[in-house]
Write a structure and sequence with these properties.
It is a single chain. By secondary structure, this protein is α+β, with helices and mostly antiparallel strands. It has a single domain, classed as 3-Layer(aba) Sandwich (Beta-lactamase), CATH 3.40.710.10. The protein is built from 13 helices and 11 strands. A 5-stranded antiparallel β-sheet has the order 4-3-11-10-9, with helices on both faces. Helix 4 crosses helix 6 and helix 4 packs across helix 7. It is globular, with a radius of gyration of 20 Å.
């Protein structure tokens, strides 16, 4: 893996971790050379041809069974060594029967020519409204990078290891949770992870849906992976700051974001495949999370990420809460953004995963998600009321509490 390497230059693993993480303080990514700022993505129509600035990489795309195979030889993308192209037709092979076509159109146009996946779901019911690049979304998953910090924050608050007013001492200074989430501070979350310990971190991660399928009877979906022991590379601190050894699927992140958006109900995600299934859709609860009182504590940091932090490219007229993630895995650069709109009568969860070369970063993923919200807002999508289907009737009784 092309990720942060922690070497035992002194016997203390803790001190080694601190020194390594300090080098990438508040960036939320595997250490790389300082990036130039990338302009926010412009609105575009979907491009079905590979961008001319990319050299062809020898790579076989992920299959529906979740297997990813990368050829070891052949030319790589400029600026690499990245074996996954930054640009591709991400809609190839998708089956859109049963999707919300307005949401689908907005997601495809926002993603444009980038190689990645977008999952949009309804947090009040667990229905997947669109899934762009189903091979990736249903595959074996990718390292979550800094998006893992959301579950770690909830674990720390649940165990009362931190309180809303707690400022952890980091070297010569102190930092609170809101700032650490907004700026994706690695040192803060490595320290929090060490205070919690691996067993507690893993317990809450499984409670929030890691290591299990997020969907209900979705053909081809994979459960991702959660390690059974602290990672050999950096221990629990690397797990809680970078997601070391975790494989997260876009569906898992969408389910967790949905639970935060709706007040603590973790739904099974369901993906209707035709209009009859849409009309008869009934929400299915996986479990209720005891996080209702914690959501107001983590939400300022997630809102702050969009308003002044790592996800500022998603900033819109409406309120959006989210978390970015940037790292690299198996010569593939990853850019994550999990989010939900935090005002209006109709909420959506939007998860973006970008794969490819150096441009595939969390801030760019946030910009693409922001474009999805903007496009739907221009169509007055959030002002619409849900039709009185079985899903609407049931969800109005069981959700939402915030």
């Amino acid at each position: 893996m092309n990720r942060l390497q922690v070497y035992s230059v002194i016997p203390s693993i803790r001190l080694s971790l601190i020194l390594a993480l300090a080098a990438v303080l508040s960036f939320g990514a595997t250490p790389v050379r300082k990036r130039r700022a990338h302009p926010a993505p412009v609105r575009r129509t979907v491009v079905t041809t590979t961008a001319p600035v990319v050299r062809r990489a020898v790579v076989r795309k992920a299959s529906f069974t979740g297997t990813r195979t990368v050829a070891p030889a052949g030319p790589v993308i400029a600026g690499g060594p990245w074996f996954e192209p930054t640009y591709a037709d991400s809609t190839q092979g998708d089956n859109i029967d049963g999707e919300d076509l307005d949401v689908r159109r907005a997601a495809v146009e926002a993603l444009g020519s980038f190689n990645g996946s977008i999952v949009v779901s309804d947090p009040a019911t667990g229905r997947i409204l669109t899934m762009v690049n189903q091979r990736v979304a249903l595959g074996s998953g990718f390292q979550p990078c800094s998006t893992v910090k959301v579950s770690v924050a909830l674990a720390g608050l649940s165990e009362k290891t931190i309180q809303p007013s707690t400022k952890l001492r980091l070297g010569a200074g102190k930092m609170d949770l809101t700032y650490a989430l907004a700026h994706s501070n690695n040192y803060y979350f490595a320290t929090l992870g060490e205070k919690l310990g691996f067993e507690k971190v893993a317990y809450y991660a499984h409670m929030f849906g890691y290591g299990e399928k997020a969907g209900l009877n979705i053909p081809g979906e994979q459960p991702g992976h959660y390690p059974s022991a602290p990672p050999k590379n950096g221990g629990v601190g690397m797990l809680t700051s970078f997601g070391e050894e975790i494989s997260q699927t876009p569906l898992q992140l969408a389910a967790l974001m949905g639970a935060i958006a709706n007040g603590g109900t973790l739904y099974y995600l369901q993906y209707p495949r035709n209009q009859a299934e849409v009309n008869g859709f009934v929400p299915q609860i996986k479990r209720r999370l005891d996080i209702e009182g914690l959501i107001p504590v983590i939400k300022p940091g997630m809102r702050g990420a969009v308003e002044f932090g790592t996800a500022h490219r998603a900033r819109d007229d409406g309120a959006i809460a989210g978390k970015t993630g940037t790292c690299s895995e198996n010569h593939t650069h990853l850019g994550w953004f999990g989010s939900f709109n935090d005002d209006g009568g109709r909420k959506l969860v939007v998860v973006v995963l970008l794969t490819g070369g150096r441009p595939a970063i969390g801030p760019l993923a946030a910009g693409i998600a922001g474009d999805v919200y903007r496009r739907l807002g221009e169509k007055h999508y959030f002002a619409k009321t849900n039709p009185m289907t079985p899903a609407a009737l049931i969800s109005s009784q069981i959700c939402c509490r915030n």
